Amino acid sequence: MIKVYFFVLWSFVLVFYGCKVPASNQDSNILSANTSLSRIAFGSCSRHDLPQPLWSPILENKPQLWVWLGDNVYGDTEDMSVLKQKYDAQKQNPGYQKLTASVPVIGIWDDHDYGVNDGGMNYPKKTESQQLMLDFLGEPATSSRRKHEGAYGSYVYGSGKQQIKIILLDGRYFREELRREDGWYIANETGSFLGEEQWNWLEKELTGSKAAIHIIACGVQFIPEEQRFEKWANFPQARKRFFDLLVKNKPAGVVLLSGDRHIGEVSRYQPEGMPYPIWEVTSSGLTHSSTNNTGEDNKYRVGALVNQLNFGIMNIDWTTPKPTVNIQIRGKENVLYLNESFSF
User: Could you tell me which residue ranges the PhoD-like phosphatase metallophosphatase domain spans (predicted)?
Assistant: First the structure.
C-alpha cells in the first residue's frame, strides 16, 4: 500500500512540475500533424550485422523526421521468426535507439526487408511480412496501412502554406516478375507495378492536394533509365503512367526519394506538360555501398555519383516566396558529398 501511495505521489510531482517520463520508441514515432517540417533525414540499405556508423552524424543534423527507403533490414527469408529477429536486432542497435528515442520514424520497404532479393508479387509471405515491417516502424494497430494489401501509405505534416504530404509507394507487393539476361533486366512493357488499388489510391492522394511540397518515396529509382538494375524504367508503361499522373494533377513541389542502389545521386527530369522540373534523391548504403561503381550512365544526374556510405538530408526554407529545398548527401563524420538547392 505504501509503494502504491508513493508511486501516485511521485506521478503527481512529475506532472505538477512539468517533467515527462521518456517516451518509448513507438511513442516517439508519433509526430503531430500540425508540426511544420523544415528538416527530414532519410536513407536505406542497412544490415543489422554490420557496423552502423551513420546514426551519430544523422543526429548531428537534428532531423525532425527519419524516412526509411527500403532494405531496412536484410531479411531474405520466408521464415517470419527469422525476419522478426533481424528487425529486433536492428531496433537494439545503440545508434538506432538514440535516433528513435528522439526522432519519429516512417518508411517503406524494398526487396530484402520484403523478404526476397528483387522480389515481386509472387513472394508467398508478403502479408505476414507487411505486418512485421509495420511493427518495426511502430505503426499503430489502427493504422490504415495495416488494413489493405500492400504497405503503401501517406502522411501530412504542417498546415496552410507549410503543409507537406509524404507518399510512400509499395513497389513490391503488386509488382509482376521480371526476366533477366546477362545481368540486365528485360523491360516488362505492360507489366503491373503498383497494382490498380494502389494506383487509384495514389491518384486520390494527388487530386486536389493542398500541400506545398509532395515527397513521393519508393524503394527503387523513378527517373534513371540507363542502369541495368531494378528501376521503374523496367516497367515503361507504369513509369509513363506515374509521370502522366503528375502532369495531370500538377501537385505542388514534387520531390522523389529512392534507395536500393548502394549509391547516392540526384536526378532532375521535367516531363512534358509539367510546369517545373521534378527532382529525385537516391540515398542508399547506410552500412555497405558500391565503392566499385565509379560513374554509371545517368543522363538525368545532377552533380556527382556518391559511392560511399551515405544518408540524405532535406532542408526546407519556408521564408522564401516559394519553398526552397536544399538536398544534401552526407556520409561518415557528417562529410558533405552533394549539395543541391531548388525552388518550385
Answer: 84-296
